[in-house]
Amino acid sequence: MKNLTPYLIINNKCEEALLFYKDCFDGEISFMQRYAEAENYNVSEQFKDKIAHAEFMAEGIKFYASDGFEGQEVTVGDTIAMTVSFDNEKEQKTVFDKLKVGGNVTMDFAETSTDSILVTLIDKYGIHWYLNYDK
């Protein structure tokens, strides 16, 4: 295995979420393809503007995202979280302040037994985030 890349299904709000993450992480949407541009997808006219596949990149971060398939039932779950490690507390706090808008903080900043500072939240798209700074 060469690498593992998270793939987020953000039902009907993928582009909005990617723009949000672009601001939060000072990143870029390095690739984005709509269903209208993708071959071999037979989707309705109203779904053609949805995201078939996108790639997000920021310093030390890469993930894929999509609106999912037309008619796909998406269940937001608690079984996986995106973990980001920071070089300093200021950067951790800056990203946290952006990600928490419209979301829910599940654990406020706390020192852990591994001599790090951790804060956790669920953003407004239902994605779980663990933001960690090792002292």
Report a brief summary of the structure.
By secondary structure, this protein is of the alpha/beta class. The protein contains two helices and eight strands.
CATH H-tier superfamily of the largest domain: 2,3-Dihydroxybiphenyl 1,2-Dioxygenase, domain 1
Q: Briefly, what CATH class of the largest domain?
A: Alpha Beta
Terminal residue distance: 31 Å
Q: What strand line-up does the widest sheet have? A: 1-4-3-2
Largest sheet: 4 strands, mixed
- Radius of gyration, in angstroms, nearest whole number: 16 Å
pLDDT averaged residue by residue: 95
| Elements, N to C (H/E) | EHEEEEHEEE
What is the correct CATH architecture of the largest domain?
Roll
What is the total number of structural domains?
2
Report on the architecture of this protein.
- β7 and β8 form a beta hairpin.
- α1 (14-25) packs antiparallel against α2 (89-99).
- A 4-stranded mixed beta sheet has the order 1-4-3-2, with helices on one face. Strands 5-8-7-6 form a 4-stranded mixed beta sheet, covered by helices on one side.
- The chain has 135 residues and is an alpha/beta fold.
- The longest helix is centred in the N-terminal third of the chain and has 12 residues, at 14-25.
- The mean pLDDT is 95.
- It has 2 domains: 7-66, 2,3-Dihydroxybiphenyl 1,2-Dioxygenase, domain 1, CATH 3.10.180; 82-134, 2,3-Dihydroxybiphenyl 1,2-Dioxygenase, domain 1 (Roll).
- It has helices spanning 14-25, 89-99; strands at residues 7-9, 28-34, 51-58, 61-66, 82-86, 104-111, 116-122, 128-134.
